[in-house]
Design a protein that fits this description.
This protein has 477 residues and is of the alpha+beta class. It is 33% helix and 21% strand.
Length: 477
């Protein structure tokens, strides 16, 4: 059966597919809250059942330990058609969701999905599914599941060799995924490319491929001084104040051009080529409008000198203070010199940077700036490698062809300043690149009340995955 026959069947199958998605969205799979543990497992079992129903061998693989069990990973495999000679594809997604709070801001109950009609206005939300998990990530995973079902029921079988890994802890830090990947690394290394549907598009009606994400190195640093809080009148000017000293040190993280001052920080950075910079400049990205949306004027467009806002987000590493704490935080006055002061620091990393290098460099940098009589405590909170696909990759080119056929226009090739832990993990551990083919929109209210997934995006997702499976099956390695 041809891909055209499979694609042509999608409209008649849509209602049943949406009903299946609604059933999944009704399961409150909130991974971070132990009260939902049974529901999280139920969501995993639902997903595994769908995969079994389209001819895959599917199972739940446990994570964590006996003392600290995690949420299971949905694992499924398919050998492909007889004589298959194309790539082995790994599909990644997640079935867990964020907590729905604050509940009073939802227009309808978060786990009672509804279809809300669009206004029809230009660049306004169209018909959409509203529920927690609608776009992040059950709705996007469902586009892949429905594409599999269409191939199975109409196309005579799934046309690629496939491994599916859908985890249940992405929304609480993927805390057991590193050990899971290590445990099953031999199987993962059989794959040639990973496809991820947990990203978005720049604009309605125009598909996008995210071919790069930044990595992350995240720390808590605490500067310890006296052995107790001190009276600031009696001790001010007589000993180090950790809060004063901390902010003075942190201010040295950037030079006058807003470049990070850690030694060697830029040594491995892979610079974007002129073609990429030109392509990004042509994209419909309005920085002034984006600043307006967050309540800032045009002059707030600041960052590393010599780079546009898009380039700073997609291709430049950064250092950010995410929080500062120490001393008295309550109402009114309490005049103390705090015994300690601390900060949360995050470094977003770009292609070829290593979070382990940042860890070593930061520790040495802080030690070299230790105020007299004080000491540092540095806690490594999390980290991950950046993930990027070369623009000349045959997998990327296959995805471009697939999305152009599905969306009737060439997809935008974009990067993201954010991080998806599994992308960097698969690259560092298995040498596996990831194609991030996502269908979310900027106004989908991800992690917020009234999260949505527009039905046109849902349709585009299914059509794109149908075409992508066909294009990948035609590659010869």
């Amino acid at each position: 059966m041809s891909v055209e026959s499979v694609a042509g069947s999608l409209a008649s199958r849509e209602r049943a597919g949406m009903d299946r998605l609604m059933d999944w969205l009704r399961i409150p799979s909130v991974s971070t809250d132990p009260a939902y543990r049974a529901d999280v497992r139920r969501a995993a079992e639902w997903c595994a059942g769908q995969l079994k129903g389209v001819g895959l061998h599917a199972e739940l693989r446990e994570t964590g330990s006996k003392d600290k069990p995690g949420h299971p990973v949905v694992w499924a495999t398919h050998d492909g058609p007889p004589g298959y000679a194309g790539p082995h594809v790994l599909f990644y997604g997640h079935y867990d969701v964020q907590p729905p709070d604050p509940l009073n801001e939802w227009e309808s109950p978060p786990f009672e999905p509804v279809i809300r009609r669009g206004s029809g206005g230009a660049d306004q939300p169209g018909d959409r599914i509203v529920a927690r998990g609608a776009v992040d990530d059950k709705g996007q995973v469902a586009t892949f599941l429905e594409a599999l079902r269409a191939w199975h029921e109409v196309g005579g079988g799934i046309p690629i060799r496939l491994t599916v890994m859908i985890e249940g802890e992405e929304e609480c830090g993927s805390r057991n995924l590193y050990a899971f990947v290590d445990q099953y690394l031999k199987e993962i290394r059989h794959c040639h490319i990973c496809v991820v549907s947990d990203t978005g598009m720049l604009r309605r009606g125009r598909p996008a491929i995210t071919y790069g994400l930044r990595g992350l190195a995240y720390f808590e640093v605490v500067l310890h001084g006296p052995n107790r809080d001190l009276h600031s009148g009696l001790w001010g000017g007589r000993c180090p104040n950790p809060a004063n000293e901390l902010v003075k040190v942190l201010a040295q993280l950037w030079d006058k051009d807003r470049r990070v001052t850690l030694p060697g920080f830029y040594d491995k950075v892979l610079e974007p080529n002129p073609g990429e910079r030109a392509a990004w400049k042509a994209l419909p990205i309005d920085q002034k409008a984006a600043l307006r949306e967050i309540g800032l004027p045009p002059e707030a467009d600041i960052g590393e000198a010599g780079w546009t806002s898009t380039e700073r987000e997609w291709a430049r590493p950064t250092a950010e203070v995410n929080g500062v704490f120490g001393g008295y935080q309550g109402p009114g006055a309490k005049t103390v010199i705090p015994a300690r002061a601390g900060a949360k620091l995050s470094f977003r990393l770009v292609a070829n940077q290593d979070p382990n290098d940042v860890k070593k460099s930061l520790r040495a940098w802080l030690e070299a700036r230790t105020p007299p009589g004080c000491r540092w405590e540095v806690t490594d909170l999390s980290g991950g490698f950046p993930g990027n696909v070369a623009t000349e990759s045959p997998f990327l080119k296959a995805a471009v062809r697939a999305l152009e056929k599905a969306g009737h226009s060439a997809p935008d090739l974009i990067k993201s300043g954010g991080s998806i832990p599994v992308v960097g993990m698969l690259k560092s551990k298995a040498g596996l690149d990831s194609l991030m083919v996502g269908f979310g929109l900027e106004d989908d209210r991800v992690h917020s009340p009234n999260e949505k997934f527009e039905i046109d995006c849902y349709r585009l997702g299914i059509a794109s995955h149908v075409r992508l499976m066909d294009e990948l099956s035609r590659l010869r390695l």
